[in-house]
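Suppose a colleague, Dr. K., hands you the sequence of a protein chain of 81 amino acids and asks what its three-dimensional shape might be. Before reaching for any lab equipment, you can write down a predicted structure in token form. Begin with the sequence itself:
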Amino acid sequence: MLRITNLKAGYDNTEILHQLDLNVEAGEIVVLIGPNGAGKSTVLKSIFSLADVYSGKIIFKDIDITDLKTHKLVLEAYLGN
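The predicted structure, expressed as tokens, is then:
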């Protein structure tokens, strides 16, 4: 359902995530844990285009959403596309 591969992301020129891989299947519950500054929020912000994605892919329901703007993501989810 959600697949993230080789994600490098951060803010401005500061790379926070270094080649992150994550796979979440339908029906799974996944928790991100770690200390402050580990990148938990950056993972979520990257999925919703609120952080800078430098490289890698974010695939949701077999659709590449890596470069979609936040408002397009919300519209896609709302319309069920």
